[in-house]
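ok so heres the complex, two chains, lmk if somethin looks off
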Amino acid sequence: QVQLVESGGGVVQPGKSLRLSCAASGFAFGNYAMHWVRQAPGKGLEWIAVISYDRTNTYYANSVKGRFSIYRDNSKNTVDLQMSSLRPEDTAVYYCARDVSNWNSYVEYWGQGTLVTVSS
Amino acid sequence: QSGLTQPPSASGTPGQRVTIACSGGNSNIGSNFVYWYQHLPGAAPKLVIYRNNQWPSGVPDRFSGSKSGTSASLAISGLRSEDEADYYCAAWDDSLSAWVFGGGTKVTVL
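and the predicted structre for the whole thing:
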């Protein structure tokens, strides 16, 4: 079955960088677009970014544009989120998610998430 | 980034029908499909309705979705204790070129 396992979360100071990774298994990773979505404490879900199956297309939420970058390695079945210039408001559980198609159709499966805390 | 609007809470007794509304605008719900996700604390969110009113495999038909204009709704009939969760609507926004979510509705089974 589809498995998405996030890693790399932790406590980081404001202004610093952090890279999250998501290991995918149970499906043909190279055929699907991938997303990152986050949930701040006590808040709702917020979509962050999407990358196409072949890395040629990406979209970002305005709140992270220019600070976050999404990457994927189809040889390793991983999708990463590089986060820089982190702010306290970036504190959230970050979810990796799989699209239903090779580009931006909709999120079908989600991982369990990894917690990022931005604090001094 | 503007999102969709949902009521913060909804409740019902076992067996009842609960409906959750989701309001948006012309650039999101008005021109794109609506999706609904169920989220239990500490678990991965789960897709329960796609493309306004379609069921993913394994989701019971007690869940139903509809859309009209710039609004959508999720109905849960024959409410069960395991339906107690947060529910989120989502749609692509053409103006933002981004996915927007509702703030979430906590469903409580009394």
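quick notes: DSSP finds no helices and nine strands in chain B. thats all i got rn
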